[in-house]
Amino acid sequence: MNKFNEGYLYNDSFSEKEFKDAVLKYILDDIEAPSYIFDEMELSKIKRINIPLIQSIGESEIEYVRMIGFDTIETTTKYKTNSYGNKTYSTSARTITNWQNDSGTIEGNASSGFFDEKYKIYDEYITNHVMDKNNYRLLSNEELDNINLTDDIIDFLKNDILNKVFKNNITYPGNHVKNEEYHGTTTLKNICCTIVSLYTLSITIRDKNLLFITCSNGDIDIKLFGDYPIDDYEDNLKFNIEVTKERKEATKNERKIVKLTLLFSIILFILLLILGILLKLSALTIISIIILITGLIIVLIFMNKIKKISKPYYKKIYEHNKKDNEEKENRKIEGYEKYIK
């Protein structure tokens, strides 16, 4: 077969400008996008890519051979006679697989699709593109002749359909299968070509390239390839470190008391507990427990004090971070508004 039975070209559902505006809005709403992105990014021209998706429906006749295994349980009972003449019985079981030759034929229909390997990055849109039956035109014979339909593509479609027919229709009696082989012939009933059109837009920012794509037929469903550069957090990080140092300095004495109290109470608890056990004096054991409990109470009191002292420092960091995030968001919004004007 050296030509297509039919071909479709689906019309665009939106313009290039609408796609560009949607990409900019996508970036604005994406929390991963850095605040400076609209100030520094460079936009490429929008490209429209036409990808030929070659589809076919075929019928396969398949012959297969294999070995089918059926499991059976074999039990064995043994006995022993002791010196008094009494018998003791034991039963063991094992699984035995009986293998049988099996062969047969399968017939069925399936569909397959092919597109060039260079479009692999767009696989999601090629295989799941939206097709509006009211928004297309048929391709002319001259247009279809310009699309390369090689013997390799035909072989791919036939093999893919044959494998799908086998996998969709084969059944597996028994418990195991081995040495399965199958072959057959496939007749292609119909070969059509659907032109899948994509809009692509590249953005370069700080030596990173981001690619936005969408299928031009249907809704603007944007897909992003690439990662944003990290936002500027250096000043924010320095502020947080400085405030944390101030908090630690303000709670230095309280933290020392917590550490020393916890250390001495554990040491005394262990020493008195050991002495109480060795000397068999229950009073020492009770005293050791009291010391440990007292130490823990003191620790909790000073931990609560540390928490109260630290509270304004935590609040200071929170308010600073909140303000910084608001400034970054405002910068992002202002940059977006400049682009859409």
- Helix count equals 8
End-to-end separation: 54 Å
The value of Rg in angstroms is 38 Å
Fraction of helical residues: 40-55%
Task: Describe the global form.
Answer: flat
Q: Give me the strand/helix succession.
A: EHHEEEHEHHEEEHHH
Structural class: alpha+beta
Poorly predicted spans: none
On the 0 to 100 scale, the average pLDDT is 89
Annotation, overall tally of beta strands: 8
Domains, number = 2
Measured by DSSP, the beta-strand proportion falls in: 25-35%
Specify the biggest β-sheet.
Answer: 8 strands, mixed
Please characterize this protein's 3D structure.
Helix content is 44%, strand content 33%. It is of the alpha+beta class and 341 residues long. The chain has 2 domains: 6-60 and 108-170 and 187-225, no CATH class; 234-340. Strands 1, 2, 3, 4, 5, 6, 7 and 8 form an 8-stranded mixed β-sheet that branches. The radius of gyration is 38 Å and the shape is flat. The model has no long low-confidence stretch (mean pLDDT 89).
What does the secondary structure layout of this molecule look like, with pairings?
Elements: E1 6-10, H1 16-29, H2 37-40, E2 42-43, E3 47-81, E4 87-114, H3 123-127, E5 136-138, H4 141-145, H5 151-169, E6 176-205, E7 208-215, E8 223-225, H6 234-250, H7 252-278, H8 282-340
Parallel strand pairs: 1-6
Antiparallel strand pairs: 1-5, 2-6, 3-4, 3-6, 6-7, 7-8
Helix pairs in contact: 1-8, 6-8, 7-8
